[in-house]
Specification:
Elements lengths: L3 H20 L9 E5 L3 H13 L4 E5 L4 E3 L4 H6 L8 E3 L1 H7 L2 E3 L3 E5 L4 E4 L4 E3 L2 E4 L3 E3 L23 H12 L5 E6 L9 H16 L4 E6 L7 H12 L8 E5 L5 E5 L4 E4 L4 E3 L2 E4 L3 E3 L1 H5 L11 E2 L4 E2 L5 E3 L13 H20 L7 E9 L5 E10 L5 E3 L5 E2 L5 H23 L1
Parallel strand pairs: 1-2, 1-9, 2-5, 9-21, 11-12, 11-17, 12-13
Antiparallel strand pairs: 3-4, 6-7, 7-8, 10-18, 14-15, 15-16, 19-20, 22-23, 23-24, 23-25
Helix pairs in contact: 2-9, 2-10, 6-7
The protein binds flavin-adenine dinucleotide.
Flavin-adenine dinucleotide binds next to α2, α3, α9 and β22.
């Protein structure tokens, strides 16, 4: 059995060895053009990594936003100790340090047969290999009375930026004694511990400023990531499971939310149960971002099936899909995972273009969640391919925070803050 400490050591070492091995290779020069859709954790990492592996490959990153705002850290904004502006990331380093071409537009369509993408201004960009990392969109058709056009009134805050600020402003405007309802989505969705970190961060804010208030989590699932750690930490900090609990968790997988009355901030479930909120944070059911659907990269699940060794789409050759949009079970949809998948994909693309041998991939993921500003918890895992080409967990590796002693949770919180700085540097700088 590998201990948690041994795992952290092993995973960082194996990632380093993996990179060192690569730099020793002498890549052939190439005039290939790799186009990347989406400048989030997946797309930015892939762009940087391909240029690091073989600078002769032309890489073009297409992303509509002038700067990226990280979702990691955005729950901390709701707690009041992080500014949304501090989550802004520039694309400047990808351009100036790694010579990645950047086009700030949206891709409207992909032509997989003729190998080009069409931008929103109708310009066509040809590619030899395409990497698609567009993140998620929402399945609004599953809810009555609410969609993208009303998300300024009932913010999901599941894409960081204006949505985060809207939710924060509503919390600040709420009366002491108000009720915040968080609707946690069904699996799969981006950031499995995210709704529960959000509840912790809102509780942290309310405890200081509006202590008579309550948070009700209505969950489409019967269990969730790091559940026992969240429950124990909520007991310690927010009176969870007592008569005076600030957080209530209700699991309603057989009684899903069907309808939202925007004006009254009220929701109704399948069985006709009504919940009224002062602040309603409905996090919708998710799917791969729309461009993946219009390009025919998704299966009936709404996500993109891929060959895990290369991340190449099983539906369209020469197109690779990474990050939240891709099916990489049991790896969760996270920024850390998108970064790891992008590295595996970058190696695969460079090797394919140079006709080098494929590598044996290994993925590492850690998800941190803060409980208060100074206390946190985590879950970590290492993944590999089995003989059938399926991703499996490496037995004995990884684990969760071993106990909820104050000193342990303080170390975890410090690690969470350092991790955010590191992953942003690793992906964008
Ligand atoms: C509240 C919250 C907290 C989180 N905390 C953590 C955390 O602590 N740790 C962690 O590991 N993960 C966390 N995550 C998850 C993480 O943010 C995502 O898993 C990660 O961003 C996925 O990266 P991606 O590249 O797949 O997608 P994204 O980061 O969403 O990037 C996709 C990009 O594609 C662009 N795009 C979309 N369509 C097009 C198009 N047609 N043309 C061009 N560009 C397009 C978008 O503008 C976007 O910039 C959190 C998520 C949330 C919501």
């Amino acid at each position: 059995m590998i201990s948690r400490r041994q795992f952290m050591h092993l995973s960082s070492r194996s990632a380093a060895l993996w990179l060192t091995g690569c730099h020793k290779r002498a890549f052939n020069s190439s005039s290939a053009h790799v186009v990347i859709i989406g400048g989030g954790f997946g797309g930015a990492t892939a762009a940087k990594m391909i240029k690091q592996l073989d600078s002769s490959i032309k890489v073009t990153l297409i992303e509509p936003k002038q700067h990226y705002i990280t979702c990691p850290g955005s729950n901390w904004v709701l707690a009041g100790f992080k500014k949304i502006e501090s989550l802004n990331v520039s694309y400047q380093q990808l351009l100036s340090r790694y010579d990645v071409g950047i086009i700030h537009q949206k891709v409207a369509t992909i032509n997989p047969e003729k190998h080009y993408v069409t931008l929103s201004d109708k310009q066509k960009i040809p590619y030899d290999r395409l990497i698609v990392s567009p993140g998620i969109d929402f399945r609004w058709e599953l809810i009555e009375g609410h969609d993208n056009s009303t998300s300024h009134l009932i913010p999901h805050a599941w894409k960081a930026g204006i949505q985060t600020t809207l939710l924060k402003n509503q919390l600040q405007a709420m009366k002491n004694g108000g009720t915040v309802v968080i609707c946690a989505p069904p699996n799969p969705f981006r950031c499995p511990p995210g709704p529960y970190e959000r509840a912790s961060m809102i509780a942290y804010y309310l405890k200081q400023h509006k202590p008579k208030s309550k948070i009700i989590i209505l969950d489409a699932k019967s269990q969730f990531s790091k559940q026992q750690l969240f429950f124990k930490s909520w007991e310690k900090h927010y009176g969870f499971a007592s008569n005076n609990s600030m957080i209530e968790w209700h699991s309603i997988p057989d009684n899903p939310i069907r309808k939202i009355d925007i004006k009254n901030r009220q929701l109704e479930t399948d069985f006709g149960d009504i919940f009224k909120a002062d602040v309603l944070n409905y996090i919708p059911t998710q799917k791969a971002a729309n461009i993946a659907h219009t390009a025919g990269l998704c299966d009936e699940s709404g996500w993109c099936p891929v060959n895990h060794q290369t991340s190449e789409s099983t539906l369209h050759p020469d197109i690779h899909v990474i990050g939240d949009a891709s099916i990489q079970n049991p790896i969760p949809k996270s920024a850390f995972a998108a970064n790891a998948e992008a590295k595996v994909c970058a190696f695969a693309v460079v090797n394919l273009l140079n006709q080098f041998e494929a590598i044996e991939p290994l993925w590492v993921n850690t998800c941190y969640s803060l409980i208060t500003q100074e206390q946190g918890i985590s879950i970590a895992m290492v993944y590999k391919l089995n003989q059938q080409g399926k991703i499996i967990k490496v037995t004995g590796a990884g684990g969760v925070t071993p106990n909820i002693a104050e000193a342990t949770l303080t170390i975890e919180a410090n690690n969470a803050k350092r991790w955010l700085k590191t992953i942003v540097m690793d992906s964008f700088k």
